[in-house]
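Please check this today:
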Amino acid sequence: MNILVVGANGQIGKHLVKLIQENGDQARAFIRKQEQADYFKDLGAEVTVANLEDEVDTIAEAAEGVDAVVFTAGSGGSTGKDKTLMIDLDGAVKTIQAAEKANVKRFVMISSFDTSREAIQSAPESFAPYVVAKHYADEWLIDTDLDYTIIHPGLLTNEPGTNQVNLGADVERGEVPREDIAKVIYTSLKNDTTIGKSFRAVGGETPIEEAVQSVNS
């Protein structure tokens, strides 16, 4: 399987590219700066340098020939509302459109833990734009004909992965290592039962393969 990882230079993205390569599949790292390329080339990954603020056609070129697209990009906590709009919403939608244009059916979206209307209304003012962006990006994806999976991770940490999670539509908030989210993504790509599913992911006691296989939404 050839997998385009959008946001590959992020912390989840790096874990995911490494996991893909270690398991005999092929990652294509979508990165923004040429100086980021060596890390991924050393792993054996393909590299494409582009920007989510580019045109859809540019992103579609990066997706040509892959079997799946994973969107794990984000504007980051230090940017303003403008970049949240341009990356977390418009960048996500353009990536969805690019997948359609490149005839890539499989799409995995890394969202926010709760993107409901209630979450938007109750979010702190500084965080609400991010929740809004994720809400509408998720809705756009659901309304397509793509074979999507939407993963809503809990509070992300840099602790070593445990290979154990709790997945489901209504799990309570909790922490989860980024390394484990990368494995949830990869395992979801290998499991067609996750197509059309949207679920939360936090640390738990169920092995990832088992949790993914039995996830409900």
User: Anything to note?
Assistant: The first helix runs from residue 11 to 22.
